[in-house]
Specification:
about 30% helix, Beta-galactosidase, Chain A, domain 5, alpha+beta, about 625 residues, three-stranded antiparallel sheet, 2 domains, 14 helices
C-alpha cells in the first residue's frame, strides 16, 4: 500500500482520482466525488481495485510532475533498458471553457498515455476495477472493440491499443515501448444500462491537449504574481479540481477514511461540502481573480442553506443533498489497518453554532466584494441571525465535531458574535434594513459572556470551553474575524498559550486530545490548517520573520507535486488525514497573501467593510 503522500490528484471538476508513484490509480469514484469507488486500493490493497501501468521489471528511478499550471500528471520511470513517461488525466472535453467546465460526454473518461523516452521498456498493465467500494467484482466482456467491466449500475469500458488478456479477475497486458512510441489507454465510465459508442470520444491525444489547455487557461486568470506563485497556483488548481462544476460546490477532500492517526479510528468521509469552508473559500477565490467561481460557490451556499435555519446543516452533498447517513464498510481493511472505513458523515446532524457565523461572514465577504444578492437572500440572512440571537447561549458540538457531548465552546460563541456583527455591518454600511439595536445588544452580550466565562484567570488567556483550563487552536481565529485584536492582553496570552501547549516541533495540534476528551482514543497529527492560522497571527503581531519561517516549513510538507493533506504526523514524518485537503490549501493561499502584504491585508480583520480587490503584487514587493 502506497503512502498517502505518494499520490497525485487528477480531476475533471466532477470527480477526482489519486495516482500513486508506482503507476497505480489507487482511488477513483465515478461519476461524482461522493459516488461509490471503482478503484479503492488506497483503502484495501487486496479488495479495493486498481489500474496500474508501469514497467514490468525493476524500476531504477521514478519522478513526476504536473505539466506547468495544469492538472495533467506526468510520471517518468527509468529502467536499465530505457525510460518512459506515463501521462494521466481525467478528461475535459474541447467545448469546455475555464468558466463552465460542463461535460457533454456520455461518460467520465480517464486517459493514460505511455510514451517512450529512451531505449526500450517492457510495460505491464493491470486493469482491475471493483465497484461499490470493492464489494462488486465486475463481469469482464469484450464488446465493440473494448473490454467492458460491468457490475450492477456501473460500467467501465477499457479501450486498449495493445492486445489484452481478460479473465474473471481483470484485464492484463504486456507490451514493449521504444523511444518515440506512444500508446494511449482510455477508460470510460457510464451507467451499465446505457451503451457507450467509442466513436463518440475524441482521440486520446486530443483529450490530453484539450484538458491541458483547459487547466492552463484557468490558471492564467490568477492575478497573483508574488513570491509564492508556484505553491499558490498549485493550491488554486487543487481547489478547482475539488469543485463540482455543475453546482459550484467544493468538497473538503477527494477521499474518505484516510486516518488522522495511523491505525486508529479517526477516519471520516470528507467528500462533502462544509459550510465552515465558505468564507475562506470565497476570500481565496476573490483575492486571486476567480470571481465566477466565487459567485458559483456563493450561489451553492445560498441554495444549500435555504429554508428554516432550525434545519441548517454543517455540511451538504455536492448538489446540496442533506441526507449523508454514516455507515461503515467492514469488508475493507482500511488504510494501513485504520478502521473503520466510513461512508457518509454523522457530523452532518450535529449542532455547530460557529457555522452560522461562517455563513454570515461569507455573505459579508461577498457583499464587500460587490457580489450583491437580492432581498430574498437578505431575508434568509435575517432569519439566520434571528436563530443565533435565540440559541447562542446553548452548548454545541463545536468546530472539531467532537463526539463526546456538547459544551460551551469559546470559538463557537465568538462565531455567533460574528454572525450578529456581520448583520449589523450590512445595515450600517450596505443599506440593509433590520432590528439593528437588538442586534447590537446581542452582540455585546455574547462578547461579554465569552470574556466573563471563557477566560482562565490564572493564565490570562481564553480557553477551549467554559470551565476548562485547556486551550484550543480554534482560538487563533478570534483576531482573524475581529472578535479581539492581537494587541489585547488576553488574545496575546492565548496565542502564547497555544504555542506553549499545542505546538509540536513547530506545528499546531487542534487541542490536547489526552486532556480534552472528544469521544475517541487520544492521539492525532498536527493540523496544517491551525498551523497556517498561527502564521496569520504572527503576521498580525508583527512577527514577520517568525511567520515566514513557519510558512516555509509548512509549504515544505507538501509532497513532490505540491499537495497537502489534513494533518502531519511529526513522529513518523508523514502526511495523514484525507488528501488532498481543500482547507489546507485554502489556508496556505490566505497565509501567502497575509505575508505578501505584511499584515496590511488582515490588519482590519475579516469583518472589515472596505472593498477588496484581487492581489496583484509582484515578487519584487515581497
Amino acid at each position: 500500500m502506497s503512502l498517502i503522500e505518494d499520490h497525485a490528484l487528477i480531476g475533471d471538476t466532477h470527480s477526482a482520482g489519486l495516482v500513486a508513484l508506482d503507476g497505480s490509480i489507487d482511488w477513483l469514484c465515478l461519476p461524482r466525488f461522493d459516488s461509490p469507488s471503482c478503484f479503492a486500493a488506497l483503502l484495501d490493497d487486496e479488495r479495493g481495485g486498481r489500474w496500474r501501468i508501469a514497467p514490468g521489471g525493476e524500476v531504477g528511478a521514478v519522478s513526476r510532475t504536473y505539466r506547468e499550471d495544469s492538472m495533467v500528471l506526468e510520471t517518468t520511470f527509468s529502467t536499465a533498458s530505457g525510460s518512459i513517461v506515463v501521462t494521466d488525466l481525467l478528461a475535459i472535453e474541447e467545448r469546455s471553457d475555464p468558466h463552465t467546465p460542463r461535460s457533454v460526454y456520455p461518460a467520465e473518461v480517464v486517459v493514460r498515455s505511455v510514451r517512450g523516452l529512451s531505449g526500450t521498456v517492457d510495460v505491464a498493465m493491470l486493469f482491475q476495477p471493483r465497484f461499490d467500494y470493492g464489494s462488486v467484482t465486475p463481469w469482464f466482456r469484450r464488446i465493440d472493440g473494448a473490454v467492458q467491466a460491468i457490475g450492477g449500475p456501473d460500467a467501465l469500458d477499457l479501450l486498449s491499443p495493445v492486445p489484452v488478456e481478460v479473465d474473471r479477475d481483470g484485464v492484463r497486458a504486456h507490451f514493449r515501448v521504444a523511444a518515440g512510441d506512444t500508446l494511449s489507454f482510455v477508460a470510460a465510465y457510464h451507467r451499465s444500462h446505457l451503451r457507450l459508442d467509442p466513436g463518440e470520444l475524441a482521440p486520446p491525444e486530443d483529450l490530453i491537449r484539450h484538458t491541458d489547455d483547459f487547466w492552463k487557461r484557468w490558471a492564467q486568470r490568477c492575478s497573483y504574481e508574488g513570491a509564492y506563485r508556484d505553491q499558490l497556483i498549485r493550491s488554486l488548481l487543487t481547489l478547482k479540481a475539488l469543485t463540482y462544476s455543475p453546482t459550484g460546490g467544493i468538497v473538503a477532500a477527494a477521499t474518505t477514511s484516510l486516518p488522522e492517526a495511523l491505525g486508529g479510528p479517526r477516519n471520516w468521509d470528507y467528500r462533502y461540502c462544509w459550510l465552515r469552508d465558505a468564507t475562506f473559500t470565497l476570500e481565496t477565490l476573490l483575492d486571486h481573480g476567480y470571481t465566477e467561481e466565487a459567485v458559483e460557490w456563493r450561489d451553492w451556499l445560498l441554495r444549500a442553506v435555504a429554508g428554516d435555519p432550525e434545519e441548517l446543516q454543517i455540511m451538504y452533498g455536492v448538489r446540496g443533498e442533506r441526507r449523508l447517513i454514516e455507515f461503515t464498510l467492514d469488508h475493507l481493511s482500511g488504510y494501513e489497518g485504520s478502521r473503520p472505513v466510513r461512508v457518509g458523515n454523522a457530523a452532518s446532524q450535529q449542532f455547530q453554532l460557529d457555522v452560522y457565523g461562517e455563513v454570515m461572514d461569507a455573505f459579508h465577504c461577498a457583499r464587500r466584494a460587490g457580489l450583491e444578492t437580492g432581498e430574498d437572500a437578505w431575508e434568509l440572512e435575517k432569519a439566520i441571525v434571528d436563530f443565533v440571537c435565540r440559541h447562542w447561549q446553548e452548548p454545541d458540538d463545536g468546530i472539531w465535531e467532537v463526539r463526546s457531548g456538547r459544551e460551551h465552546f469559546v470559538h463557537s460563541k465568538a462565531m455567533a458574535w460574528v454572525a450578529v456583527d456581520r448583520a449589523i455591518k450590512a445595515v450600517e454600511h450596505f443599506g440593509k434594513r433590520g432590528p439593528v439595536e437588538l442586534w447590537r445588544e446581542v452582540r455585546d452580550a455574547i462578547h461579554n459572556d465569552v470574556l466573563t466565562h471563557g477566560c482562565d484567570a490564572s493564565r490570562g488567556c481564553l480557553v477551549r470551553s467554559y470551565g476548562s483550563t485547556e486551550v484550543d487552536a480554534s482560538l487563533l481565529m478570534l483576531p482573524l474575524v475581529g472578535f479581539l485584536p492581537v494587541s489585547d492582553e488576553r488574545m496575546a496570552a492565548t496565542i502564547q498559550a497555544v504555542q506553549d501547549d499545542l505546538v509540536v516541533d513547530g506545528f499546531v495540534q487542534r487541542y490536547r486530545s489526552e486532556a480534552a476528551p472528544d469521544g475517541l482514543p487520544a492521539g492525532e497529527g498536527t493540523f496544517l490548517l491551525c498551523s497556517f492560522w498561527l502564521v496569520d497571527c504572527f503576521v498580525l503581531q508583527g512577527n514577520i520573520q517568525e511567520a515566514r519561517v513557519l510558512f516555509d516549513r509548512l509549504v515544505a510538507l507538501a509532497n513532490d507535486v505540491g499537495l497537502l493533506s489534513e494533518e502531519y504526523d511529526v513522529a513518523t514524518g508523514r502526511l495523514v488525514g484525507n488528501f488532498p485537503q481543500a482547507f489546507s490549501h485554502i489556508a496556505m493561499a490566505n497565509a501567502a497573501r497575509t505575508l505578501e502584504l505584511g499584515g496590511r491585508w488582515r490588519g482590519a480583520h475579516r469583518g472589515a467593510v472596505s472593498v477588496r480587490g484581487p492581489l496583484t503584487l509582484r515578487a519584487a514587493s515581497a
